[in-house]
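Quick one: structure tokens for this chain, please?
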Amino acid sequence: MTDPSLTVLMTVYHGTTAPHVRQALDSLYAQTRPAEEILLVQDGPVGEDVAEILAEAEATRDEVRVLRRENNEGNAVASAAAMATLRTEFYARQDSDDISYPERFERQLAFLAEHPGVDLVGSAMTEFVDFPEQPTGVRALPESPAEINRYLTINNPINHPTVMARVEAIRAVGGYQPVHLMEDYDLMARLVADGKVLANMTEELVYFRVGDAQLSRRTGLDMIHAELTMQRHLVDYGLVTAFRAVGNFLLRSTYRLLPKQLLTRVYRVLFHRRIHAER
């Protein structure tokens, strides 16, 4: 693979705050290996301050393109619309409230060059609340394709904000679909079901913002309904049996119904590893 082309895809909606968008964009501008394109998707109306940031980026940065959508239809629909316009070989996700390490794209492109059979690669994430310099933990997931395929039968094996993938592989399985609250997990499931190869890098390459809002998204009846839909999809894709899907649903739903304090502790036990000293 020589001189690959890369688009960064970031969706922005009414819940996005201007300071977070600026931090996210600054982390993209500071990459040791910059992307050829930064595609910002405005998913419906946003605050005036956020709209100004998008307009300024579009006017002053040659690599920035803004796709403005009239109505807020959700991350999956916005992402699908953006993916349809890509002309690059690779794309990377960037959440509008997260921060990429400066070497993220350089490291991930190098990994994909060294592993041409891998279609999508993620990484670990350094979690923080207010300041990335004060991390609260590292969210790490299985690394090898075989481990990822096994883990996918119970949970999403990829930290979506860290994704870099071959555009054609994503298109081959239908891209992002409007699976409420589970669009990233559903995409990973379809990739594996289609024989695509997923991997995770052990190092942290994204600072992931956490807090009460992020924890709340993991709970509630809306999420329980989403769990049921996702388990049905796993059965339809031939990844789990109906019996296993019922067990998954009961286990994952029980987890989401835990009291907030206990849920936080369980989350740390399941997903956190020790923060690297050099970080």
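The longest helix spans residues 221-236.
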